[in-house]
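EI: anyone free to look at a 80-residue chain?
SC: sure, send it
EI:
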Amino acid sequence: MEQRVRQFRQRLYRWPRSARVAAGCALVVGGLLGFLPILGFWMVPLGLVVLSVDVPVVRRQRRRLEVWWGRRRAERRWRG
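SC: here you go
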């Protein structure tokens, strides 16, 4: 899973910055309308990953989540 996110981010760096920001915002807004057909709440995290490439505040939060998730997974592996 982590490798897929990394590959996705590497592909995003090839897009122009304005296209990345527009796509990220569109995904977040579309995700907020997730109760409608076709749109879904899955779009919010994807939009935040897209925005994390260019927006420092979102990047910091994504990085904190990655570190927390990694520690949690390592702790579970250690226990069991």
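EI: The chain has a mean pLDDT of 86.
SC: 👍
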